[in-house]
Amino acid sequence: MWVMAIMVAIAVAGWFAVSCGPGASSAERPVNEEEAALLAGMRERNHGADPVAVRISVPMDGETVTADGYLDWQVPMLYARVPDAEGAHRLVQAIPGLIATRADDAAAFGELRVPEDGWTTRQMLSGAVTPLETTIDILASSLFTLTAAEADDPAELAQQATWREEGVIDGEPVDSFRAPIMVETDTGESGEQEASPEALYSLDADGDLRRFQVNTGEPNLSAVDFLRDVEFDASGLEATDLLGGPAIAPTAVDEDLAETIAEVREGNWEDTATVDLTVPTGDGQLTTGRGSIDWRTMTAYLHLTDASGQRLFLARPGGYATLAAEGDEPPETPPTEGWEAHALADEDAAEHFGAVETLVFRLLEMASEEADDADAVAEQAFLLRVDEVDGAAVNVVEFPVAGDTAAAAGQSAFRYHLSGDRLSEVEMMSYYGVASAELSDEDFPMVEIPWELAEQIG
Hey, do 2-238 and 251-457 end up sharing a CATH topology, with the first three levels equal? Predict the structure, then answer.
């Protein structure tokens, strides 16, 4: 979806600024065989390349807005410090389809460090509210098209690309080419592949991309320079948790980890835990919550805060209920009146069931009277990465729970953090980013749910 949205945005801008503008070349010619091969291998070279420093130049209202950043080809992910309309700056992170922003932290950016909190997310393009945000979205999305696991077809590029001019960028001789943005596009009614919008690619003699230019609707082109001679420590270049956190590399689980995963839900069966919830629920909107989960009675009890205010949230396997609230913590004993209940069996249940409800009900499902089949887990589970928290290793894994849709490795809707043999966090991929429920073992009495409400939500 994000690819097609960006293609439409660039196509609407057109190519007038390149083909007819004052910087147009009169010496354009078809690419030769060697040049086509150089272009065809560009995205594959990027795919295996180390992170690179970038400088973004955006024409805006007759001026040029400049932003510095870093691009990790592997994720892919862009981390940049971008000026805003008031002359200040904001930190921006982008992955395909999503943008995360927060207040400026020049020190953190200078250290190539990603602040842990203060971020909100939005959808690319549709969630942008200023022309600059829209342009940054177009550029960021276009950058993500510049990597591919395999080389492109040189024969196809020989037909579509043109050589424009020679030049020098950062002291390196380059050749500039006009060529389609290299992604798969939908076929039209005729069944033929629709033309992709074009960009300018400036490549050095090794085939490394030094400058990428695209028309974002201004009289001049927006540009990204790849500062390949800039050396930096990329160890801190990680996506914020709302965008999925550090990069993953799915591998099969070993026998010991499969056994641990198989026993996780059984280990919760008679336990209780505190819950800290963070759920992106709209463009620039977060729902946060704190409360408890009691697997002995299959009850989740939380205090939630979002843009519309505060509310209490009770959930059991048969449904959930909400009640307007104040303060920062749920009262020890839930109020007896005023609850709005929703049974999952109701016809209109889906209308009220969103990301918060989905994540809470997944927490309820993380308990079972019996252990799962370790052999089945060994076949279906994947180790995504190993984090270090307070000096201890935390395995980030994915494995199917009954009813989950099958997904490719690394693409499951849910991820689980295991601290030793305990479940310490559940992550959920949602439309506006990655939701999280952090869990901490704690003993507490059973929540006394009003009897009539308990009958409604099961």
Answer: yes
**How far, in Å, CA of 98 to CA of 123, rounded?**
5
Q: How confident is the model at residue 181 (pLDDT cuts 50, 70, 90)?
A: confident
One-letter amino acid for residue 10 of the chain = I
Radius of gyration of the chain (CA): 25
Q: How far apart are CA 256 and CA 258, in angstroms?
A: 5
Return the residue matching tokens 């083909």: 19
- For residues 341 and 321, is the Cβ–Cβ distance under 8 A? yes
Highest mean pLDDT among 20-24, 58-62, 426-430: 426-430
Sheet with 89-95, edge to edge strand ranges: 29-30, 162-169, 172-180, 198-203, 209-214, 222-227, 52-60, 63-72, 77-83, 89-95, 98-103, 120-123
pLDDT tens digits, one per residue of 96-115: 999 999 999 999 999 999 99
Cα 434–chain centre separation: 7
**What pLDDT score was predicted for residue 21?**
41
Describe the strand order of the beta sheet including 251-252 as a list of residue ranges.
251-252, 382-389, 392-398, 414-419, 422-430, 433-441, 272-282, 285-294, 299-306, 309-316, 319-324, 340-343
Instruction: Quote the pLDDT of residue 20.
Output: 39
Domain ranges of the chain: 2-238, 251-457
Q: May I ask the CATH architecture of the domain 251-457?
A: Clam (2.50)
Whether domain 2-238 has CATH 3.40.50: the reply is no
**Could you tell me the pLDDT band of residue 16, with boundaries at 50, 70 and 90?**
very low
Other Cβ atoms closer than 10 A to 61 = 9
Rounded distance between C-alpha atoms, residue 42 and residue 206, angstroms: 9
Average confidence score pLDDT of the chain: 90
CA atoms within 13 A on the CB side of 188: 6
Return left, alpha or beta for 390; rule: phi > 0 is left, psi -120 to 50 is alpha, else beta.
Answer: left
- Alpha carbon 291 to its chain centroid, in Å, reads 26
Reported as type and span, the H/E element at residue 359 is helix 355-364
Helix spans in 50-175 (H): 106-110, 131-143, 154-160
CA distance linking residue 71 with residue 50, whole number of Å: 9
